[in-house]
Amino acid sequence: MELKEIYRIAKEKFKGACRVCPVCNGRACAGEMPGIGGIGTGSSFIANYESLARIKLNLRTIHEVREPEISYDFFGRSLKMPILVAPLAGMVINMGNAMEERPYLSAMVAGAKEAGSMACTCDGPNPLFFDLGMEILRENGGWGVPTLKPRPEETFLPLARRAEECGVNAIATDIDAAGIIHLKRAGQPAGPWPVKAWERTLSQVKVPVILKGVMTVQDARLAVKAGAAGIVVSNHGGRVLDHTPGTADVLPAIAAAVKGKIKIFVDGGIRSGADVLKMLALGAEAVLIGRPMAIAAVGGGKEGVALLLNQYADQLRTAMIYGGCGSLADVTASVLYSFGKQTDAPGKKKKSR
Ligand SMILES: Cc1cc2nc3c(=O)[nH]c(=O)nc-3n(C[C@H](O)[C@H](O)[C@H](O)COP(=O)(O)O)c2cc1C
Question: Can 236 be counted among the known catalytic residues?
Answer without folding.
Answer: yes
